[in-house]
Amino acid sequence: MQAASLDRTFHALSDPTRRAMVQRLARGPASVSELARPLSISLPAVMQHLQVLEASGIVKSEKVGRVRTCSVEPKVLSQAERWIADRRDQWERKLDRLGEYLEATASGNDNEEDEGNAK
Amino acid sequence: MQAASLDRTFHALSDPTRRAMVQRLARGPASVSELARPLSISLPAVMQHLQVLEASGIVKSEKVGRVRTCSVEPKVLSQAERWIADRRDQWERKLDRLGEYLEATASGNDNEEDEGNAK
How far is the C-alpha of A42 from the C-alpha of A34, rounded, in Å? Predict the structure, then answer.
């Protein structure tokens, strides 16, 4: 995934109003006025947030007649999720290797002690 | 997870330099100068990015003597990952239900056609 695309995706998700819009759209497509209803902000403000979400690719919208219907594009969300998961996996594998190393070192010490005790 | 915490986490991840720092730290702890080395930016700029990462909780650092060592805090990454995954799951379950509904409707139509054809 392009860095610029991740920039836009994470930026889009860094605002609570935009996350509320994504949360609503995860339940299914909605018109702009349906999206605006539970949010206590003006329609132009909703449109601005929608533009940020569309620029990131998280949301797409289509205008039919006078109604613009918005929906979630799960692929972009998956890519952001994957970026985080890959870093977390890498870190956890690192910790596992450290654990194995410490275990190997500890059992090495145990053997030495056993040898010391044996006579 | 608090909304303000998700704001800070996604904001921290929306910058390519900060993501490069997280990517480096996912391989294991590093000093600030180790973090700065592959990045073509000044040390003060690295320190500023580090502050944003620490404010989000993604990275923690500890100063021993003159060396500040940074490491990843995987819990905060997991929380951001979970937020995205939950939205994506919700959307996919919605699609599954829609699929089942369409299938049920289609097989309903098939039955009607069968009845029409049978004689």
Answer: 13
